[in-house]
Write a structure and sequence with these properties.
By secondary structure, this protein is an alpha/beta fold. Helix content is 39%, strand content 20%. The structure holds adenosine-5'-diphosphate. Substrate binds at residue 89.
Length: 395
């Protein structure tokens, strides 16, 4: 069996999935969390069941040892059948990394160098890579970048209209994120429809805790709502998305917020959390249905922004064949899907309410038969996409 182990490493936790590349099924998965705290925790799902352990996990290296113990206990055995490669999710690849890349010491230095663009993510991703290299010294490690899919953006789509020389010096431009998901979902949409990817103009709406829209023409990303960082664009669980930059100037002058205070405000106390006091869309839609005014406002603002991007990307693409909803909110919330597309009949976008109400984990069509634009729900699978790209990189 050829398997690939996919690692998604954060600063105090990492998730993993072992994928059988012949069937593309996950045969084991798990989570190592509370790394560096007084008591850490591991959860592992393997062929012989689920195992959990609470133990001290001082760092990522210890976390990987705990993961190997869990594989030894609940299977499958990695000693008998080691993975052919390890695929690592890396958030920021800057403009340097436009495809999955086999990790070398130089690649690690470059990922480190990009940390000032993604201070929360890249150092944590790199810690995961370095710990995994100790656990699997004889296996190729591949970095798969969230930004890579958006390297096809034209300069006019990625340029911020500020002092060009200053921007160049500090690498200020739009990069876009969720690329692994946008790529996977747009390819699955073409496959589901039985049409060549090259012929399709698509909008993918990845709506999770983080959220982004992507305009995809013939399989190439031509615009996306996240920018230099994952803060720009749609209203998210706790992030503001688009905002007049002068608001920051105003708040620093009038409300005494320094850069850390602004960072905290925009990344953690904004979006649904800022407007409705809760970041989970399930809570917001429930409260809005019950007449809670702040939840109603939060939901309406979220939907207004989504509609704004759908219209914008229709124009950017010069037409539209498919809109696909994905990720936690996109896959599960019929209220959000219906609200985002309400009143777009003039653009040829018409939902079928009964199809939209179906709950399923399978790809499905939710547009009406007379809708010029096909609307789909397709569950994303970033781990599988990372595994596919890892396999391609080592081939
Ligand atoms: P992440 O960005 O963390 O990967 P996910 O894609 O898993 O997030 O999405 C998580 C979000 O999905 C949750 O915050 C929740 O708001 C939303 N969600 C999950 N199920 C539903 C549902 N049935 N209705 C509305 N929102 C949902």
């Amino acid at each position: 069996m050829s398997t690939i182990l996919v690692i998604n490493s954060g600063s105090s936790s990492f998730k993993y999935q072992l994928i059988d590349m012949d069937t593309e099924n996950a045969i084991a998965s798990g989570l190592v969390e509370r790394i560096g705290e007084s008591s850490g925790h591991t959860t592992h799902r393997g062929p012989s069941g689920t195992s959990e352990r609470t133990l001290e996990i001082p760092d990522h290296t210890a976390g990987f040892r705990a993961m190997l113990d869990a594989f030894a206990q609940s299977g499958p055995s990695l000693d008998d059948d080691p993975p052919i490669a390890i695929g690592h999710r890396v958030v920021h690849g800057g403009k340097r990394f436009f495809e999955p890349t086999i990790v070398t010491p130089l690649v690690e230095l470059n990922i480190e160098d990009l940390s000032d663009l993604a201070p929360l993510h890249n150092p944590a991703n790199l810690e995961g890579i370095r710990a995994a290299e100790k656990a699997f010294p004889d296996v190729p490690h591949v970095a798969v970048f969230d930004t890579a899919f958006h390297q096809t953006l034209a300069p006019e789509a990625y340029t911020y209209a500020i002092d060009a020389e200053l921007a160049e010096r500090h690498r200020v431009r739009r990069y876009g994120f969720h690329g692994t998901s946008h790529k996977y979902v747009s390819e699955e949409a073409a496959r589901y429809l039985g049409k060549p990817l090259a012929d399709l103009k698509q909008i993918v709406l990845h709506l999770g805790n983080g959220a982004s829209a992507c305009a995809i023409d013939g399989g190439r990303s031509v615009d996306t709502s996240m920018g230099m960082t994952p803060l720009e664009g749609l209203v998210m669980g706790s992030r503001s998305g688009d905002i007049d930059p002068a608001v920051l100037i105003h708040l620093s002058r009038r409300a005494g917020l320094d850069t850390d205070g602004l960072d905290e405000l925009l990344n953690r106390r904004s979006g649904l959390v800022g407007l409705a006091g809760r970041g989970d869309m399930r809570d917001v839609t429930r409260a809005a249905a019950g007449g809670d005014a702040s939840a109603e406002r939060a939901l309406a603002t979220y939907l207004h922004r989504l509609k704004h991007y759908i219209g914008a990307y229709f124009a950017v693409l010069g037409g539209l064949d498919v809109i696909t909803f994905t990720a936690g909110v996109g896959e599960n919330s019929e209220v959000v899907r219906a609200g985002a597309l309400e009143g777009l009949g003039a653009l040829g976008i018409r939902l079928d309410p009964e199809r939209n109400a179906v709950r399923s984990r399978d790809p499905r069509t939710i547009s009406a038969d007379d809708s010029a634009v096909t609307v789909l729900v397709i569950p994303t699978d970033e781990e599988l996409e990372i595994a596919r790209q890892t396999q391609a990189a080592i081939a």
